[in-house]
């Protein structure tokens, strides 16, 4: 995501400050950040693929009653 060449000076300073706080070099910090983002995207993709729609449920009592009431005699 954030390549050194694509970041503004302010963004680079902010990331350097965060890296310093974490005790890492800026390059290492950006690599770690990118790796975490990729893992998060992969987990979201797997969760989306795993989520299957629930089987259609039978209409409830009142829904069936109203459906019958709508039918002509």
UniProtKB/TrEMBL annotation:
Which ranges are annotated Basic and acidic residues under compositional bias? 33-45
This protein's source sits in the domain of life called Bacteria
Ranges annotated as biased composition (Low complexity): 49-58
Protein name per its UniProtKB record: Uncharacterized protein
Q: Which organism is it from?
A: Roseomonas acroporae
Positions of the UniProt region annotated as Disordered: 33-58
């Amino acid at each position: 995501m954030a390549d050194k060449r694509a970041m503004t000076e302010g963004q680079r300073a902010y990331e350097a400050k965060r890296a310093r706080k974490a005790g890492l070099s800026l390059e290492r910090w950006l690599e770690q950040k990118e790796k975490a983002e990729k893992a998060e995207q992969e987990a979201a993709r797997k969760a989306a693929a795993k989520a299957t729609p629930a089987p259609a449920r039978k209409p409830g009592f009142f829904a069936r009653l109203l459906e019958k009431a709508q039918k002509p005699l």
